[in-house]
Structure formats: C-alpha cells, structure tokens
Amino acid sequence: MTTAENRAKAASLKARFEAAGAAPVDCAVLQPAEVLLDLYGEDVRTRAFVTSDPVRGEVMLRPDFTVPVVQMHMAEGAEPARYTYAGEVFRRQEDHPERAAEYFQVGYEVFDRESPAAADAEVFALFFETLKDYHLSPVTGDIGILTAAVQGLQTSEPRRAALMRHIWRPRRFRALLDRYAGRVPMPASRAALLSADNPLDGAGPMIGLRGEDEIRQRVDALRKDADTPALPSEQVSLIEALLKVSEACPFALEHLRDLAVDMPAISVAVEQFGARCDAMAERGVDVDTLAFDAGYGRSSMEYYDGFVFGFLNRQQPNWPAVATGGRYDALTRQLGQGKEIPAVGAVIRAGLLVDMDAGAGA
After folding, report:
1. What is the pTM assigned to this prediction?
2. In the chain, what are the domains?
3. In sequence order, which residues have a C-beta less than 8 Å from that of residue 349 and are 6 or more positions away?
4. 109 known member of a binding site
5. Most buried pick, 9, 63, 106, 234, via CB within 10 A?
6. Buried b (16+ CB within 10 A) or exposed e, 208-227
C-alpha cells in the first residue's frame, strides 16, 4: 500500500484516540542513542538504525514512541495524563526480511496512579473496540507474574539478577535455569579455569577493554556462583508449570491461584491479574473467552513488566502482531530521575490494517 494510505489510516486512528481523551504529542525522529543503550544494552544495535550527528553524537532513528513519550511525561507531564501519537518508526529486520523496516505506528499511553487494573482495562478495551471489525485474535499475558516468581526463588541474589535480566530472552533464561538447577554439567573449559591457582597463567598479552583486575573479579564471581547450592527441583518445576499456563483467562486465573499456594511470591501479581479481569469485564470485554499465555511477550516486549497483550492475524502467521501493548511501570522509574508513575499503553501498525482493508475489498 502507498505511504499516503498508511498515513491516512494512522491519522484516523490517532483522531479516535484523541476522542477517547488523549492529548496529541510528537517526538523527534532522531533520538539519543545513549538512552536506549542504557536501557537495553548493546544488542539494541541489532534492531535499530544507528548514525552519528556532528553535534548530538550517536543517535538512532526512532525505533518507537514509548521511550521519548515517557521521558517527556516524567520531565513535564501533569497527572493523570493520556497521550496519542502517529508517525514512522524504524526497525532493522534481518531475521524477517519480508517485514517493513519503516512503518507507521499509532499509540495511546496512560499515566495514572489511581487504579492500574482499571487503566489496563481501559487501554485493552479501547484497542479491542477499535480493532473489532478486523476479526483479529487477542492474546494476553503478564510478565509481572513471572518476575515475581523469579524474585521469590531460594537462591543467591546474583542468580536472581541474572534470571531477571534474561526474562525477555527465553532461550537464555531456560539455559540459566537448567544450569542453576544442576541439570547440565559445567563446561570443561570453565571447570579448568575455576580450579586453576592462577587463571591468567599463560594467558598472553591483554587484548580488549577488560584489565587484569576486572578479569580476576569475574573469575571470583564465577567461583562463588559454582559454590552456590543448586535451585531446589520443586521450585524449578513450579517455574516450568507457570510458563505452561495457556488457556482462557478464568481458567488461567484458577490455575495460577493453585500455583500460588506453593509459590506465595506470585500471590499479589496473580490477584492483580484477577482485578484486571474484573475491570475488563466491566468494560464489556468477554474475559471468559479471552486467551491468556503466561509466556506471551517475552521475546518482543522488553520494557513491559506487567500486563501485556497483542492482536494477531491468524490468517497471516508471518505477520508481526497488528497491535501490542502492556504495562511499563519500571520504565518510568528508569527515566524518571527519582520519580515514577504507573503507566500502560499500546500501539497499532497502521499499514497492516491498510493491507487488511485492501484484502477485504479484493
């Protein structure tokens, strides 16, 4: 479809969100790379377009609107606040060359302290209503339940921190869980390194940014980790059972409450899920048939830390989600310079709706 059609669809969606009470905002196409690198680490370079500005230094073509909108709100926004925006975003697509690297994104963001469950329901219900004519498949999840489970594990703080860092990288998370549970043997090369009296003997000249002191500190940390008792097998089994929960919301809630009996660390997050279901039902969402998947959003929603959702086109399995959203309270803490506020939002890929409109008219 043409850029003009995509732009028109984006403008109509933005107007709908303005009518729902959101204030229109805009963000610069060039964003400081430093902020995104601090948030996501160097691997963000594999997903964003990076360039250099002679005055501003390293910058990125806007990969999304959420981060700059949070920065703007935390610096100058009133409370409560609702924002909407529309414009191009830019993402590298090496793993999916069939997908556009530049596309129109339209969003709706809510900053409100009064009731997180009500705000979650507000955003989901608005997108559910906006997209109802496209017959998409909605799916929900909750990253907060998994993070609560990890925080409750009976293990060392470094191990909990490592698992928390990799919640959004399912394969790495699985590998760490297996290693901490003692399910896989230590690689021979690491065992030799940790048993050596002087790990740097015969290492040759130092190459790279790490000095000898840093290397020794890293080896000491690995030795402490090797001496840490294995994760209890029953705790690992509970995490595995949690990640397998995938059913309609009422059944998922019942299942999670059963798990919370043996995993009390998730109890508060599970009851927040229950409150969200009630708030959605009050807004007319049929939660009895709404899908919940405990693992949803773990590979594509790095700044979401609670409720997550997406709207999928099951007829186009190679497409990304047409719309995605969720709660990102932690992001407001990271960007708030000492302030924080509960926040939730979502975005729509306007061009995919244009494609669906064209297909329906064909």
Report:
1. 0.88
2. 1-115+341-362 (3.30.930.10), 155-200+211-233 (no CATH)
3. 103, 104, 105, 320, 321, 322, 323
4. yes
5. 106
6. eeeeeeeeeeebeeeeeeee
**Is 304 marked as a binding-site residue?**
yes
Question: Is 298 within any annotated ligand binding site?
Answer: yes
Residue 83 among known ligand-binding residues: no
Task: Tell me how far apart the alpha carbons of residues 1 and 42 are, in angstroms, rounded to a whole number.
Answer: 34
Q: What is the pLDDT along the chain (362 residues), one digit of tens a residue?
A: 578 999 999 999 999 999 999 999 999 988 888 887 777 766 677 777 887 878 788 888 888 899 899 999 998 888 899 999 999 988 877 676 677 778 899 999 999 999 999 999 999 999 999 999 999 999 999 999 999 999 999 999 999 999 998 898 899 999 999 999 988 877 766 666 666 666 666 555 656 556 666 766 776 766 776 677 889 999 999 999 999 999 999 999 999 999 999 999 999 999 999 999 999 999 999 999 999 999 998 876 578 899 999 999 999 988 999 999 999 999 999 888 888 999 999 999 999 999 999 877 54
Q: How many CB atoms sit inside 10 A of residue 253's CB?
A: 20
